[in-house]
Fold:
Amino acid sequence: MRAAVFHGAERGLSIEEVPTPSPGPGEALVRVAGCGMCHTDLHYLDHGVPTFKPPPIILGHEPAGTVAAVGEGVADWSEGDRVLIPAVLSCGRCRYCRMGRENLCEHLEMLGNHIDGAYAEYVAVPASELIAVPEEISLEQASVIADAVSTPYHAVKHRGRVRTGDTVAVVGCGGVGLNIVQCAVVAGGRVIAIDLNEERLEIARRLGAEETINPEGVERLDKHVRKLTGGGVDVAFEAIGQPRTIEMAFSLLRKGGRLCVIGFSHEPATIPVGKLMFFELEMVGSLGCGGGDYPEIVELVRQGKLQLDPVVSGAIPLEEIEGGFDRLRRGDGVRWVVTP
Structure:
């Protein structure tokens, strides 16, 4: 099969012919229809972040496709079934899995990081991890549910804990941030979307944001937001992963507010601890999504309450994946899907 193989930051990616995996006991072989492209891959390609499995490794962690074959002991899935694969696979047995926090699994494996991923024609995974995709949803588009939609959904529902009537700020309207916007709207929040890119802000409005702000257009973002909201937001989400935007999101909170950090950063951020204490503020992190939420997310997409059209910019053939990553670097579009 053809696959995009990562050979380390210095050598980058190459399209190669590699052996097609065979499903072992309890596994399913999935023919990949689409795999979403994620900025996480740029950490490996551009920033020297090591993959857990040393290169060479096939990248790609947002796949959907059809079951091509199943291994011994698999009874719930058959050839041709339409499925998506969560970005992170859990053991189902450790303390965190038993608590329903599979995203913190002590033995978690991430596609394209711990094990070979899905920038390839086929990928083999435990069949127990597969999520059914109804006919109404395009498999190419469904691929982004695996991470770009599910990660924001987990953040909004479980970590940010957005409730009906909450005022919500979303700092950063890339692929993850725009999905935070629509997940927060579905949860009943009144959303303020913040980004430097006017095209992204327009998409945020289409997804239900009541207010959009370009920080370059206001003198002080925190004062502007406090004026809009009568004191600040109940919940702020940071979806970029830079110290200054984490600090910015923190500054938007009202008394008793909550900051949820989804963006990944190597660098420390400076947070005024006195304000954290005196105003009873909260800071939480959010990582991925537990497997139990995926059927609910898929159903919200099927019903049209969560939209994929505005956040999937288009499809890219596997052979053009380098050009796709250049689009990510430039900020062109929102989410691109590789179609092996």
